[in-house]
Amino acid sequence: MPDPIEPVSLPAMPPPLPPAMSYLRFLRTVVVRSFSGSWRFYAWMTLLSAVALVGLNGWGLQLLHGMQVTHLSDHVSWGLYIANFTFGVGLAAGAVMMVIPAYLYDDHEMHDVVIIGELLAISAIVVCIGFIVVDMGRPDRLWHILPGIGRFHWPVSMLTWDVLVLNGYLLINLHIAGYLLYQRYRGRSPRRRWYLPFVFLSIGWAISIHTVTAFLYQGLGGRPFWNSALLAPRFLATAFISGPAFVIVLLHVIRRSGQLKVGDGPIRTLTSVMRVTVLLNLFMLGSELFTALYTGGAHAASVTYLFFGSHGKHALVPYIWTAVTLNVVSAVLLLTPLVRTSPRWLLTACGCAFVGVYLEKGMGLIVPGFVPSTLHEVVEYTPSATEWKVTAGIWAFGLLVLTVALKVGLAVWTGRVAERSSVER
Amino acid sequence: MSGSSRRVALKVVGATLGAGAFAYAGKPVAQWAAGLEIDDLLRRHYKELTPDEIAQVLRRVEEQTKEVHGVDVRVTDLRPQDGVSFGYALNLSLCIGCRKCAEACHHENNHDRRTNNSYIRVLEMTQGSFDMANGRVDYDHAVPAPGKYYMPVQCQQCDDAPCVKVCPVEATWKERDGIVVVDYNWCIGCRYCEAACPYHARRFNWRAPEIPADEINPEQGYLSNRIRPQGVVEKCTFCLHRTRQGLLPACLEACPTGARVFGNLLDPASDIRWVLEHKRVYVLKEELGTRPRFFYYFDK
Fold first, then answer.
1. Could you give the CA distance from residue A248 to residue A228 in angstroms, rounded to a whole number?
2. I need a labelling partner for A121 at 20 to 30 A (CA). Which of A150, B66, B127, B228 fits?
3. A197 prior amide bond cis, ω within 30
4. Of B28, B169, B230, which is closest to A61 when you measure between CB atoms?
């Protein structure tokens, strides 16, 4: 029998910790909660980790043996990696479609879930940076592109602009999400001046990341397929398809998991956005096709190859027709009352739109820029197994980041985890 | 065993397996990192090196070539000369499409033997058409073929070069004598320049070049034909290791028909000036505003 212990009288609430201690404790909570959960959580994280490791291994072999392990060539010098990068930037920018209603239109229901958009933006940017790094022949020289340390060819090179806007977007969203969550954790109401200016900044910044990414391609006179003023508007339209589509699916998953109460309002708003952007995108695609095919000649060469194949080569034809079909299906579905009454149809529409944009803006946009080559050689490209492995690995890693961010973020957001709560589970 | 200790045991097993998987998957990355040399990692941009540092770097490249390829080479760093600005012209009436120039480039510039790389691509064009869509590079028959003319294309050393413009790290730039060069030790391998070039002039080292020791050209320029590292971009440099000491480019010397004319645009007595003043020359894709230093003309 243990010795009797004199009971100590506890205050009703523990006293607030000094800020530094409190922040460290917050970080500890984040880490601890990232590694604990149900068996489903472990299974999901194990799966993602395994795929990410396959990707890491593939990238390592690429570093050792050179980029010969890809199917890229001097003719098609960018492929699957840059295609995924471009799509990823759209996903990151698309999350702003939650921020605008929540903050500009004071949509309260959206405001309750807007943190999801910010966490998605962070994860998507991580994916983008991943694809840039694996596309580099010499990632050991990454420091050459850091402003102030390397030789930053700003403002002339559009790639330096992309470095600035992507990393800036990452920092802005880390700040907003981090600040709001930390204040929730401490049980304080956030001060508007510490986050609201950044929220408005992030709206403009979201537009900029995808505009700059379009300008990377759009400004190249030697590539008629990309050299179109419509590229940046198309990029934005597709961003506002893939972003909302992904978020709608995410909101359904979160609602089911019971992690957060999700109203119908945000889903309705995002569906309305998509209803417009899907049509807008198809319209702009049609406009591009008309210009190329009606004019004919050199301008039609890439488009002809993309949609119909040329010189007996057809590698991209299945991609683009699948993309167009999916985009049309999603457009039609979104116009029917089905998507309002049945979540299943809505999710189908979102899935079609997401994959459609992925194919159209990924492989369907990057590769035909190189075919035919600048000397009009028709050299084809299909990604190698290594490229698919690395690509899957980066997406898995991005989902890993998103899962952890949502798991911890939503627990704090809903007050299930707080500094002064007695229950930490 | 209680529920919680089973949980702990499972976590320990899981963490161990996870760490093992991570170590296994990451092995190639670690192997690659182990092969990197600190001097190369920290080396600054060519333009930031002092003459002493350049001298050291040149010796270092010679040593590395000896280590890897077992060959003694001489790596120089010839600078642009005052009063010299290079230009190149090609007489399409004389070119017969024999590809001797491409072959000479391959050997002179220590290109990878397996890919048969060269900075020059020769297009077989159809009489009556300037459209490259009607040309082909993979012709395989006796030349010149009837109804055809031949157009070799290499770096046009543009005065407003898209490749220089887009490079995010200034690893490629235009020298005073008009030659666009690449610092192979600064290039990050993003290949944006390859996407930007309208003339298919740039090549990427998809793997480390392989050349039999007895075929390596030992006279090498730091910014030109030294053996390139894996993962960086390269291009035609008008053979600056030759031309900056008064020699002619290898492609010109190899041409059996005398179709190629090279020289100093600032020297009124040069052949290139005579061609520019007396022939109706044109440049490729003039509408793109790249202002090439490579001119084409027909004699008759």
1. 31
2. A150
3. no
4. B28
